[in-house]
Structure formats: C-alpha cells, structure tokens
Amino acid sequence: MDSVISFGGANAGFQAGIINGPVNTAFHLPPERRKTPPPPSIFIPFAQDADFVERGTTLDQVQQRCAAPRSRAALVGLGGVGKSQLAIEHAHRTHKQSPETWVFWVHASNAARFEQSYRDIDDRVKIFGRRDPQANIFELVHNWLCDSRQRWLLVLDNVDDARFLLSDQPDGHNQGQTTNAHVIWKPLREYLPHCKRGSILVTTRNKEAALKLVEQRDIVSVEPMDKAEGIALFEKKLRVQEDNESVAELAAALEYMPLAIVQAAAYILQRAPRCSVVKYLDEYRKSERKQTSLLDRDEGHLRRDREAKNSILVTWQISFEYIQQTRSSAADLLSLMSFFDRQGIPEDLLRPRTERQGAQTIQTEKLGNHGDSDSEDDISQSSAGDNKFEDNIVALRNFCFISVDTSGTSFEMHALVQLATRMWLEANSKLEQWKEQFVSNLCAAFPTGEYENWVTCCALFAHARSAVGQPPEHESSLAEWATLLYRAACYKVNESTEEGARARAPGHFV
C-alpha cells in the first residue's frame, strides 16, 4: 500500500524511500525583513513603587554617575537593603525625565537568565538578524546598543557572582546554563558596551563582583535606612494608623532593613485585626526562636526577582552558602563572629589560639634572636596566617556582613545577620561547634575581676553577657562557660562596690 505524506501552508519536509547513499538536504527560510524599530521605551519587569521612600542622596549619586557618557555605576549593599528597589526607581525616573531614552532590565544572576534578557531586548527592539539560528544574540544586542542614536540605560540586577561573565569557556562552570553556548566567542562581560550614549547600572551584594564591572569610585554603597526612613516605609506599607511609638520600636528592632520591614508589614496586614504592630513586637521580643519564626517567611514583596527570596534570613543564607563554597575559612570566621555582641568584636579573639600564641612567641624571638632559621620559618607561617585572615575579612566586608571600626582592630555586625548566621549553622548541625569555640576563646581572654584587669574586663563584658543565653551542651565546654560567667560577675560586683567607686576617683592609684 502506498503511503502519502503531504505538506501544506508554510510547512516543508523531506520524504524518501530506500536510499543506499548519503543524502544532503537544505531548507531555506524566507529572507528576514527589516522592521522599523519601535520608539524608545522602558522595558523592566517591575512597576514603580508608590510607597518608595527617598534614601538620602543615594539616587542623586546614581543619577550623577549615570548621566556621564560611557558611564557605569554599581549599587552595593547587604541583601535586602533595597538595591533593586533603588534601581527600579532610578529606571522609571530616567524614562520619565527623558522619554527618548531606552531603559532595559537584565537579570544577571546566571548565564541562562542573562541570555534570556538579551533575547528579550532583541525581540523588543526588533534587531535585524535575530531570526538566524546561528546568530550570536549577545553580539547583536551589543552592536545595536553601540549603534543606537538614542541614549539608553541598562540595569544589570543581582550580579552577585560575576564568574559567568568572565569565563570564556562555554563548557566551564556555566555549562548547560545557556542554550546558545556554541556561539559565545568571548566572555559575556565583553558584550556590555562602553558607548557614548549608554550607561550601565549594576546591583550586587558582592563588592568583589562589582569591581569586575565598575571602578571603585563608581560604587555607591547602600546602607540600611535611617530611623526616619524606616518609620516612613513601615507606615506606608501598613496603610493603617498604628501606634507611632510601637512602629518606631519595631523598625529599630528590625535594624531599619527595608526587606525585613516590608516582610513584617505584610505579616501584620494579612492577619489584621488579630495582629498589630504591638502584638508583633511582643511576639518578636519573646525569644530568638520566635524572631526566627517571624522573619523566616517568604511573603510581602511584589518588586523582587522571582529567584530572590522575600525572607530576609533566607536571603542572607544564600550568600552564606556562596561564601562557604568559594572561601570556607571566611564562612568559619563569620560563624564564630555571630556569637559575640554585635559591636566591638576584638580581632584577637577571632584568630586561632595557636596563631595568637605563635605571634607572641615570634615577637619574643625577634627581640632575642637574629638570623635563626626556625624563627624565620615561624615568621613566614605567621605572615601566611595574617594574609589568610585579612583575605577572610575582605570577603566578609565585600558582602557587607561585617564592618571595621575606626581603630581597625575590632568589628561590628548587624544583629539580624548574626541571627541568620546562627540559624544557618543550626540547619547545618554546626551551631554547637562554633558556640563552643566562642566560649573557649572568650574564657581564655577574660581575666579575673581585680582592678588592674578592669580595662580588659570592660572591653569584653558585653561579649560575656552575650554568652549568658548560649550555654553549650558538652560538659567540658559548659565548665568554661561557667568560669567565664563567674569572672564577668566578679568584675561587675567589684566595679560596683564602694571600693570600686574609690578606685575610679581622680588621683587614686593602686
């Protein structure tokens, strides 16, 4: 029986019976027609936020940098601090102030989303040649931007890991992430044009990634809101009249973090009238476990990328995982720091005890020995330890997880970052390990409460107070914990006695 296959309309095909030799076929698509490009417009996936709160001069700094020809700028800050929201606001304001300016949004968290964003731009502006299956989409968009007669703004959002932009190997770490890998002839960063009429704005929580794309001078640091800004955002998101004092207290408890404020406001609104700011604050203050429960919720934000988490704690834990994978020693340092009081974390207590003892030994040997080979080896090892420690500090500062005080010898962290870190450690069964390390380091450094030790005791007392609610499980560490608290209590008792008052009096010397 004969079989019949027919092709109609725009379809085409090839049919053959028994063939004993090679067959070559070629299908010729109709030639692509050049289309008139649309007028300049704004293509970003987020609407302008009617509840946007001004952040001091931050947007002015961005506007000033992006107004220059061939400009690049980066918004760098802690996850959840509002970088993308600032970029969204800047994008909308740019188009309103200059309707003849193209505004594009590129999701830059990985190679696949970067490529899809370029394809979206390609389709929006109808670039000639985009229908060619062998076309290099990145090159088409790059060349179109360079040749554009109108100004344009390109926002690269969430460039937290820039490695995929730097790799020139399509089968490297981004293998399988891009469907067009065989036509990537150079690193994707090369397809970000430097054009007279264009500007690029990057958002990232990783300063190291930002420096792969912009100059140091073009980084705009984004800090948490100040008190007035935090309260204003809370009141706008709540949309109902609440006790002003309670709103201020809750905003302060959330350390004026925009994402945490939006998350809390959404929680309250969804449960009103059975929940209010006062009730939320009461629950939040009950325990660390309750804080974790309230903040570990993925709700409340319409202007975040679909890959981004609305939970402030989960947002940071994603960064913890990245640091763990790329520099595990920095993750260890962050783990240890999460148990101290958030301010005045001393450098000496963060270094391994053997390293501290080694440094003291080396200093002694420097005074007594010259030219000793063993001493030189020790110095070399100490130098390597110093370099590693400094590199770890830089890694944590790049993600804005810690800051350095003016003296350069102690550090600070946000209390919420510490909470998120401990939550992450607990989920990975490492909480006790680092709690015991914290207790051990602090116990070894905290002296007895005699007057001559008061300066040291005073500097460490806040950290000892942090240890009160963190008793370790193992018996040996529990003994150190008890010793630490005993010494701290003795210091406080001695300081508060009448003798202590006399000791502090002017002209009194011991």
From TrEMBL:
Organism superkingdom: Eukaryota
Pfam families linked to this entry: DUF7779, NACHT
Polar residues bias spans: 357-366
Region: Disordered, residue numbers: 350-384
InterPro entries from the UniProt entry: DUF7779, NACHT_NTPase, P-loop_NTPase
Domain DUF7779 per the UniProt entry, residue ranges: 324-426
Ranges of residues in domain NACHT: 74-238
Database matches in PANTHER family: NB-ARC AND TPR DOMAIN PROTEIN, ZU5 DOMAIN-CONTAINING PROTEIN
Protein name: Uncharacterized protein
